[in-house]
Amino acid sequence: MLILKDIKKQFSAGKTIFSGINLSFDQGEFIGLIGPNGSGKTTFLRLISVNSFPTEGEITYNGINIHKKPAHFLKDVGLVHDEENLPLHLSAVELMEWVLRNRNLWNEESENKINEIFDKLELGEDRYNQIGTYSTGMKKKTQIAAAFIIKPKVLILDEPLRGLDENTREVFYEMLKKAKEDNTLILMASHTLNRDSELLHKVIDFPLA
Predict the structure, then answer these.
(1) Which residues contact 130 (CB under 8 A, 6 or more apart)?
(2) Rounded to whole angstroms, how far apart are CA atoms 31 and 199?
(3) By Cβ atoms counted within 10 A, which residue in 28, 94, 176, 201 is the most buried?
(4) Is the overall model pTM greater than 0.70, yes or no?
């Protein structure tokens, strides 16, 4: 279970993004984050992905404070940033190998798994080229592949559909359905998220009160 207790985030004096936030999320839930630009969705997800620290309060995952023991938490997390934070000197295939080896998940089946996920996302021979040569859509596909290939227990997705064509969006939603069936906790912010989607357990509207 992921629990946010008395969370406050403040960037500067008089600039409080949200405060007094108490929420809990269970494995297998799909949580949608909806709201206009600048409403705090990305800040919220950055706190949960340990890319930012709360001003007050704590976030725990299965009883462990994620900001005190980030490595323990992040090994089970798949993450798609809104920004394209990727190592431009690596190829997509090399990045997948690094992701798997960094989590001690590399084995004799890994090369096949890498090619399978890129085939599914329709990233062709460019998977062997440097990421710095990729289009926005290709970078997003690479981010998605890196998030899913570890079979995460938690998926944190910030505008994952940006730059994707319609076919890839359909593939992505099929991947989400499979992750949900595998009891993955999914938190996703997207301007195109349909609050009536059958996948959703809960919608959180931003800005938070």
Answers:
(1) 88, 89, 90, 91
(2) 9
(3) 176
(4) yes
Domain extent at residue 14: 2-205
How many domains is the chain partitioned into structurally?
1
Domain with 127 in it: what CATH number?
3.40.50.300
Angle, CA 152 vertex, CA 45 and CA 167 arms, to 5°: 80
Q: What is the pLDDT along the chain (209 residues), one digit of tens a residue?
A: 999 999 999 987 778 899 999 999 999 999 999 998 889 999 999 999 999 999 999 999 999 999 999 999 999 999 999 887 899 999 999 999 999 999 999 999 999 999 999 999 999 999 999 999 999 999 999 999 999 999 999 999 999 998 899 999 999 999 999 999 999 999 999 887 877 688 899 999 999 86
CA distance 144 to 127: 13
Q: Is 42 exposed, middle or buried (0-12, 13-18, 19+ CB in 10 A)?
A: buried
Q: Where are the alpha helices (DSSP H) in 6-109?
A: 41-48, 70-74, 92-102
Distance of CA 102 to the CA centre of its chain: 17
| Ordered DSSP codes for 28-58 | T-EEEEE--TTSSHHHHHHHHTTSS--SEEE
